[in-house]
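Quick entry, no commentary yet.
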Amino acid sequence: MLSYPGCGLQATGPRAVKEHGGSVFDEAPGVVLLLTADTGGGHRAAAEALRQALHSRYPRRLVAVTCDPLTGVQANRLVGWVCRRYGTLLRAAPWLWLLVFHASNTTIGLRIVRRLLARCASVPIAAAVAQFRPLAVVALHPLLITPAIAVIGGHSPRPALLTVITDLGTVHRGWWHPAVDRVVLPNAGHSRPHRRGDGRGMDRCDVLGLPVREQFRLRPADPAARAALRASLGLDPERFVVLVTAGAEGVSSLAAWTRALVTGGADFDVVAVCGRNERLRASLDRLAALCSRRLVVTGFVDNMADWLCSADVVVTKAGPGIIAEAACCGVPMLLAGHLPGQEAGNTEIVVRAGAGWPVRGRRQLRAQVEYLRSNPTSLDRMRAAALRLGTPTAGDEIADLLARQVGLHADPVPERDSR
């Protein structure tokens, strides 16, 4: 991975850099600029998934450059300060985030936000476009679409502009703009036009799913390999394992879920992944030291797929990223809440697919975990439903869509020798 000064730019691919900072690439002919923001793990994960897919399918022809115009080095100071408090806001005052979400989701509110960001976020985007001259720009955050349009509108030839929606149930209206060339939808429920003139007609939409990183694309291993994986993580291969997580920001509800599980009468192991919330991790570390049951506490992990594939069930909030990743790993989900605003409706999608259940209260959480532990048939049925819900090839399909937009085609897969 190659890093560039300016707006938190990162480029990956086989191309060599001639000069640090003012880069010109030798081999690959095209750049895809990925616009994301460090506001929650979902946007980051989707951008990384798409970067990996482009590198895998078009290694000598396309290179991905990631730009964060909201919290990167070149971001506006005030905008950066506000956006970097996203995780703190969710943990301390989710009700305030709900107000912000709904206020910006109105016609007037969205118009105000777009005008502000069209100026503030355009500077780092313009720097990236001028430096890399991308063939395509991909917006993976709803607030970056208008600034991108403002920048690329003055370039000839104009880069292709795609939006990859990272929300599942409730989609913020900021995702839609008539100047976008293609819109990638996570599910068919968002394929109908929202209102006239917003450019979201069926002819511009592609239902491809939410992209997941390469580590989540492999199906669950056979029992022997799964036991070995558990052992490598310090888990007992024979025990029923419940994974508890609440996203990269580690919302405080995770502590209540964990305590409800380890203080109940059921006999199973619990793994709590606290993300970047160090205070939460310290609190659960103290609980693990006092708890007679087996409780494993971790912070942010890079091998989340290993933990998911090792678990019998995952307890989490209904975030789009964890839902997509757990589904690809075939893990049944117990959804014990959601962030207000964009995560409303996510639980219904999982329940309707048969891949998980909603959880209301600690007593119900313990009862549901114990039921699944005692009923392997129901557990297997939910695992199969989770796999059907997953979209492990979404990243590759989006990469192919991008390539078609810029006039490229995937390299043919060599035929295997039949001898």
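second:
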Amino acid sequence: MKRIAILSFVISLFCTSIYAEAPAGYYTNAKGKSKEALKTALSNIISSNYKQWSYDKLYTIYAESDVTDDGKVWDMYSTCTWTPGQKKCGSYKNVCDCYNREHSIPQSWFKEKSPMKSDAFHVYPTDGKVNGQRSNYPFGECSGGTSLGGKALGRLGNSTFSGYSGKVFEPDDQYKGDFARTYFYFVTRYQSQMSSMSGDSFAQNTYPSLSKWSIDLFLKWHRQDPVSQKEIDRNDAVYSFQQNRNPFIDHPELAEYIWGNKMGQVWNGGTALNNQTLLDEVLINSTNQKGTLYIHTQETAQLRYTIYSMTGIKMQSGQIEGSDNYIPTRFPKGIYIIQFQAGGQTKALKFIVQ
């Protein structure tokens, strides 16, 4: 049997985004509130300084907000490769012909009104053919369904998620959390107009704004697919243009206070996901459970972790959420490094299996 013990701390790694994170005090007016009052406070914060751009400006924003490490368009509907500004859709026949501007909240739901039409937080660059397949169907989960194949991502089929039986578009697993937080943003940013919006994902009211089944669905996706570096970088990039942010990327725990398992509790600010303080509080230790690593951090933390051997081989990866976590580490005897990621920052700790 193997026993895990802590060997030592190693230097914390640190990196930052190209763009600035939320200004100090950005969310102050939301502190001390819960449920509907919290959502309303957030709506006021992200609406007050909003800078509207034209629909055509989205392609310019995408060149900053939706690019891969090698400078290509980052499309959540396909693995096609485009250079920003090139192969913008007019007409198309096949997947990878071109990319266009996909309203994750369909335009027909808000009658193509502004500023929703050009709000980059919910309008993404996507493959034209897959965008056409998605049409104005709500996001959901389906069994089987129809995929366009090849480099296309997602599928169209009848909902298998409890509470809804209509046709839905199911995005790729790696982006489900992105779209969940997009919907959280939209119904918060535009909560004063939610009563007049259609769409089966919406409840046609100010609060909770989302229908019961979509709350359950998006909370599930939000929990299973935590905030990624892609989202953090995109949040900062769009902020540099629109002067507002997606609170559910900066503070993922907000979704729980408004719709989830902390509904009714007062939100007191938490620690922003991309704040070094969150990582500074991470502690790891051995436990009485053989082959298990105990990790403690603050209550609101959502962290990714990766375990490496001392030769750099990736052994295990996953995610943790909340204060107390137990990770099985049934590795051969030796020294290992566990690296935690919160936004654009990392912290690495050593442990030994003996």
